Fold these 3 entries.
Entry 1:
Amino acid sequence: MKIAFVIRKDCDRCARIAESIIDLLPKDWDIIYDHESAKYLNGSGVDISEISADVIITIGGDGTVLRTLQMAKGPVLGINMGGLGFLTELEVDEVGSAVFKLLKGQYRVSESMKLKVEINGDRVEDCTNEAVVHTERIARIRQFKIYIDGHFLSTMKSDGIIVATPIGSSSYSSSAGGPLLLPTLKGMVISYLAPYSSRLKPVVVPSDSTVEIRIAGRDQECILILDGQREYRVKSGDIVRISRSENNARFISFRESIYDRIRDKVIKHVVN
């Protein structure tokens, strides 16, 4: 069994949790550290893009999970050290019992769709939550033309456009007024940041659709942001094409169903 650890940058407490987990693992299991973990755990670290493991344990928040899903290979078991932590499976007080379940193989691997993203035909990193095209400068509205499977949908003046997966619909897209999609659904949500007109509402399209965002007008500098992790500059005339990736995000889960995660991570958080 090969276990990898990825922790949030400059988080001594995250490293201590990793250390406590390692103490419980069989001595014959292979353990891999990313560079950040290795700084604290006296191991030799590798770049996160070189990690390939049976289980990748992330300790941090959703950002740590997203960075790992974007660059490493293997199912992720997230331990929450942040806020909501929708993509993380465990809170700190659940770690001990979860490790024993892991040792016994009492877990399941669930999958969620990723987005394939291209800029003018050149593919960049996949993303798990959302791809966002945003104005480069604050409070400078931009004009976007949106196409679905080659068919013109609308011209939108706004601060930006979000295309989210079902699992990402609970994140940035939701804060922009987009609907919450159950992760079991096969679709993508298109939502808008501070739209100039409220006539066009967020749209849900099938997961096998291709969404094109064309930067219209002159001098329309924007930024394409993938899962809040990677950024690319785009400008007038550029085309951002988004479709379903052939790769899926994989998660280690101890819950009985995805509805348990929605209840624990979203509904309880809203009610409280």
Entry 2:
Amino acid sequence: MSTLALVCACLSIAMAAWLGQCLFFRASQHYRKQITEHAREELSDLFVFIDTTYLWPTLVCVAVGASLLLWWVTQSVLFAVCVGGVSFVLPRIVLSRAVRKRQRRFDLQLPELLSSLSGALRAGAGLSVALKHIVQDASPPLSQEFGLVLREQRMGVELTQALNNLYQRMPSESVELVSTMLIVGTRSGASLADLLDRLCTNLRARQHLERKVEVMTTQGKMQAWVMGALPVVLLLVLSQIDPLSVHLLHSTSVGQAVLATVFALECLGVYFLRRILAIHV
């Protein structure tokens, strides 16, 4: 009877291990496909065209290397696994941040574009000709995005569709206003130069208000960084004052659970602070 129970237990463990392996393989394949497609889309939005085939093997090597190094330094399996997981998520965060930064820089260039475009239209130039001359002297990302709009027009794409494609690549309220203004102005036959001047004034006032809000929330952001870094600094100080107690945090299961709880609370606090300080104008 005991032999039968032992055989059943072994079979159950083997079946659970096989199912876990299959689920892990499917989840890794799904995440590999997802992160590769996401990286390709984000890089294309940044006008960076590289082969992302070797992205997943590179991430695996970096995650395994960082995990082994941290495990060798701290002798903590929990920290090693956490660092390995962060290594897989970090590229998506970096790319998303780069795309948002490029979007912000593009929005800041729009009032200057509208002002120059209004002056060119008042001088008698057509919309496409004025855009061509302005784009040639502009800096990225505005020159890249409107240069693509002009190339699409030369290939036979209507201005409406080209501007809609621009909004799909740069989905912001400012781009939507500019695209709508150009479409409505060209269709209605109204004074497009006057409309562009008014929109330029509104965008400048909005950007001024956004910078004012950013300055006013700088103190809160600095306090968030200080409060977030305080536990790490205290841990480093305690490791010099009382290394034995700090070693217990890395070597015991209770200490590792405490560190994991502190890390989770830190991430939760940073998330809520970012949501509170993210004021949309």
Entry 3:
Amino acid sequence: MLPRAVRDLTQELTKLPGIGPKTAERLALHLLRQPAGLVAKLADTVKELHANVHICSVCFNLAEHDVCEICRSEMRNKRLLCVVEDALDVEAIERTGAYDGLYHVLGGVLSPINGVGPDQLTLSELFERLKNREVDELVIALDHKMESDVTSRYIVSQLADQKITISRLARGLPTGGDIEFADAMTLTAAINSRRKV
């Protein structure tokens, strides 16, 4: 039987996404083998997480201040707004260097089966931003899954009376992917999203 402190840590670690009981146990034992200073630094960093990370009051991205760096930047194209599910999507798009507009983080996607409706997301704040700002194009950058499609359709329907271009990230084959290994849905999306060259 493992000591209570190890069992307690293991139980807490299993609450993290993707961490099962065996992995949690290995992590707890790994931390036990580390120097006390290293574990203390990790504990302090975790404790300070909520104190040092805020939600941007404009776009709902993660921020160190009330307004994130992207929203404060004068270098961003303020006429272009990209809707994403969460902060990790912002990071992924920023890594490309291909987008220079602003963002709006929904905090999830609509999922009636899981009880997630428009009120649980930042959709009303999105629509308010679009009313009060000069945005030429709204880019919907949500995953290509059923809940994301429902969310995209909801956004489009709510903006039907506004003069704004709405686009969505293309679907299709990944760069370097082989056509012979692509599933039928991916190939269909790639064919339907083709463009002239």
